[in-house]
Amino acid sequence: MKVKDKKNNFDSFLKIFPFSFVFIFLIINIYFSQNISPLYQEIINNEKEAVISYLKKIKKQPFFKSELKKFTYIFNQSIAKEVFFEDEQRKIKIQKLKEALKKNPKSRDILTNLAILYHEDGNDKLAQEYFNKAKEVDPNLTINIK
Question: What is the pTM of this model?
Fold first, then answer.
């Protein structure tokens, strides 16, 4: 008789488990669907700094251009300038360092800084090239750009 009771208990469990699993899943889903990101709220409220932060984070995504166009319509061209400000500053620094490198082609610090800037710019091939040149000047150089 006890084996039959255990089987009935197990059968009851199998009947109840899927429903309780679905119920818990739905409760969790409802909770997270209502918990909206603060960044999203700021974007919806057209807070310029939040939009700039968002656009900087999605620069490499395929939908970036459409998002930039949408927010440029809302905030005008100034938003594009602010989104690309760091990139423009990096390009200026690279140009200045290249000019300094012409005067002192064996400067480990200039070569290392160029490697770091190119790495930040996403040009890992040039970053590695400048890092290798810096390593030739100072074989004990320990930074590693991957």
Answer: 0.61
